Amino acid sequence: MFYYGGMTIDLASAGNAEARQAALAALGQQTRELIDAVVLTEVPEDEITSVTAELAALTGRLRALRRTSPQPFEIGPDGTPRHVGNAVAGPVNPHALPLIIESTPERTVRAELAFRPSHEGPPGWVHGGVTAMIMDHLLGHAAAVAGSAGMTGTLSVRYRRPVPYGEPLLATAEHTRSEGRKSWVDGRIALPDGTVLVEATGLFITPSDWVGRFDPA
Ligand SMILES: CCCCCCCCCCCC(=O)SCCNC(=O)CCNC(=O)[C@H](O)C(C)(C)COP(=O)(O)OP(=O)(O)OC[C@H]1O[C@@H](n2cnc3c(N)ncnc32)[C@H](O)[C@@H]1OP(=O)(O)O
């Protein structure tokens, strides 16, 4: 539902939902490119001021109709979570890489990724909070495809080497064991040659009201 000028509008019935998601994903991608352009720009100050004014106008146009509910969320028949607005994997969320996760027949997960200049923490390297966020999400996804969807209880991260941005990397994760509603998952981010940069272990807890709700087929 969206609220506009005192009216409530059900956009799902007002248009083609798939085309709308594609349009939003394109907006998300353009905004990612904008963010990196802002981070890297060396244009003159008057140009920066002019672009800022144009962006303020564009922001106002988008704010004309605002969503008041969370983005749609579903678990596919294979246990794969789909959440278009997610901060890590959501194609319509400019904060998201977006992380594109594949599941293997063994119910482990993998994602090829490249961080962006806007993820910089230490000069020239990726911020540790960003890599922890990627690990949190990927490990949570691995728990879900293993039939143990849950919320992060604890996440432990070991930073073994600095993480570069703008270079291809591989993130992988696998569920290792469960006890009741608690599940443990291991994961890592590595260079293409296998050199591990970041390792993580997470404990995911299935809330009581999720039990049996998100089981993969
Ligand atoms: C849909 C698919 C999504 C799929 C999603 C796709 C990937 C997304 C991944 C992103 C994940 C996130 O960022 S999630 C967002 C970050 N996480 C959160 O916001 C979680 C906030 N915390 C909570 O909501 C709650 O505390 C829960 C759900 C974690 C646990 O609450 P609860 O269910 O009431 O748990 P409770 O009965 O007290 O405890 C059950 C058992 O777990 C233990 N336990 C409880 N909390 C913790 C903890 N933090 N660390 C260690 N152990 C804990 C207890 O000691 C107990 O052990 P015993 O006595 O039985 O031995």
Automatic annotation (TrEMBL):
Topology class, membrane: Peripheral membrane protein
Sorted UniProt keywords: Apoptosis, Cell membrane, Cell projection, Cytoplasm, Fatty acid metabolism, Hydrolase, Lipid metabolism, Membrane, Transit peptide
GO molecular function: hydrolase activity
Similarity annotation: Belongs to the THEM4/THEM5 thioesterase family.
Cited CDD domains: PaaI_thioesterase (cd03443)
Pfam families given in the database record: 4HBT
Top-level taxon of origin: Bacteria
GO cellular component: cytoplasm; membrane
Localization in the cell: Cell projection, Ruffle membrane; Cytoplasm; Membrane
All residue ranges annotated as the Thioesterase domain in the record: 124-193
Organism: Planobispora longispora
SUPFAM superfamilies: Thioesterase/thiol ester dehydrase-isomerase (SSF54637)
Keyword Secreted part of the UniProt annotation: no
Broad class of where this protein is predominantly found: membrane
GO BP annotation list: fatty acid metabolic process
InterPro entries recorded: HotDog_dom_sf, THEM4/THEM5_acyl-CoA_thioest, Thioestr_dom
EC number: 3.1.2.2
Catalysed reactions, semicolon-separated: octanoyl-CoA + H2O = octanoate + CoA + H(+); (9Z)-octadecenoyl-CoA + H2O = (9Z)-octadecenoate + CoA + H(+); dodecanoyl-CoA + H2O = dodecanoate + CoA + H(+); (5Z,8Z,11Z,14Z)-eicosatetraenoyl-CoA + H2O = (5Z,8Z,11Z,14Z)-eicosatetraenoate + CoA + H(+)
Designated name of the protein: Acyl-coenzyme A thioesterase THEM4
